[in-house]
Structure formats: C-alpha cells, structure tokens
Amino acid sequence: DTGVSQDPRHKITKRGQNVTFRCDPISEHNRLYWYRQTLGQGPEFLTYFQNEAQLEKSRLLSDRFSAERPKGSFSTLEIQRTEQGDSAMYLCASSSTGSQPQHFGDGTRLSIL
Amino acid sequence: DQQVKQNSPSLSVQEGRISILNCDYTNSMFDYFLWYKKYPAEGPTFLISISSIKDKNEDGRFTVFLNKSAKHLSLHIVPSQPGDSAVYFCAAIQTGANNLFFGTGTRLTVIP
C-alpha cells in the first residue's frame, strides 16, 4: 500500500494561466475523490469518480474546472483561466468502497500570483 | 451552511493527560462519522470512525463517542503524547453519498 500520490506538491502560476494536477490513488481503490481546502477551513468536496465514470460534481466545480480519470486509475484536475480565488490546497482521496474511509494524499498547494 | 462544526479552534493538554475534541453536526441524515489527523504539509490521515448504530468505538488510545440525540461526537485521546500534536478534523457522511463533510478542525498541542 503506497498511499495516494499527488503531483506536483506545489504550483505557483500567474492569474489567467491553466494548471493541471495529477492524482494516483491506492492501486486497488476504484473510488476517487477531489477536495479543496482553503486556509482555516476543512476540505470541501469537488467531485467523485467510480472507476472512469465521474458520478458527482459539487457546485463548487465551476465551468473552469474539469476532472478526468481516463482509464479508471490516475486522475487529473485541470483549472483553466485561474483566478486569485483558486488559491487553495487541492486534495485527492481514494477508497475501495463507499463504506470504507477515504484515504487522502498530501495535496497540491496552488498559489495564484 | 456548515453542517459539521468544531467550535474549538485549539486545545492544549499536558502530556499524559486526556485530550477531548468535540464535534457537532446538524444533518440528521449523517450516519457515519470519521476523525482525521493532519500534520503540516501532509494530507489528512484517517484515525478512527464510528457508525450511527454504535455509541462508542475504541482503537488503542483513541475512543470516539457518538450522541445521536444531541448530534454530537467527541474524540478522546488518553494518554496524550507530544506526537499527537496536529490538527484534528471531524467528518460526516450519509450512507450512499460520496462526499465527506468536514469541520474546520481543532489544533491540538500536547505539552511535554
């Protein structure tokens, strides 16, 4: 069990640029989740995949955000035309079933200049 | 609308004493509750959970208590150790749903 891996750990970019993050879940987990955490808050749900299917999206996931999990393994989260308010920690989690705890990666910290 | 609340932003406890972290929720549909621990620059690490069919779950030094009528849960750590110093998040989920709802966290400091 190598845990959930996220890349990069930090991303600094200028406002208006596009960014993409990657998440590799625990290998036997077919459920994958993205969350966003801002300073002083707990993680907030963004979206959920079961295998390659994106089954749920939060209203926090604006049109500038898109997530994929093309082969049911790793996932990517892309933010287009970044804004200051996108600065946050983006966390990925995975689980084997819906009744099992979600296990989190160490996150990607995004800073918008 | 914060459905899971942790009203104490911080807590300091002497090493060897009991730490009690509290959490309240408003959504009566939540039936599974979790505690996560978070160190700086790391993601949340799952600690312990409890189903709504139970009122207590114990794992070593960690015990979670659930009071459904009060919509309240607590995490007890005894004895507290300096390595327990971290931010603790309470989370809740409804069976069949996919998204965890988190509180804002409580920073625990265990003083040697």
Structural class of chain B: mainly beta
Give the overall shape of chain A, derived from the CA principal axes.
Answer: globular
Major beta-sheet overview of chain B: 6 strands, mixed
What is the number of strand segments of chain B? 11
Low-confidence stretches of chain B: none
Helix content range of chain A: under 10%
Unreliable stretches of chain A: none
What characterizes the major β-sheet of chain A? Answer: 7 strands, mixed
How would you portray this structure in words?
- The complex is a heterodimer of chains A (113) and B (112).
- With 113 residues, chain A is mainly beta.
- Chain A is built from no helices and eleven strands.
- In chain A, the strands form two sheets. In chain A, strands 2, 4, 5, 6, 9, 10 and 11 form a seven-stranded mixed β-sheet that branches. A four-stranded antiparallel β-sheet of chain A has the order 1-3-8-7, with no helix packed on it.
- The N and C termini of chain A lie far apart (36 Å).
- Chain B has 112 residues and is mainly β.
- In chain B, strands 2, 4, 5, 9, 10 and 11 form a six-stranded mixed β-sheet that branches. In chain B, strands 1-3-8-7-6 form a five-stranded antiparallel β-sheet, with no helix packed on it.
- The radius of gyration of chain B is 13 Å and the shape is globular.
- The model of chain B has no long low-confidence stretch (mean pLDDT 96).
- At the A-B interface, strand 4, strand 5 and strand 10 of A face strand 4, strand 5 and strand 10 of B.
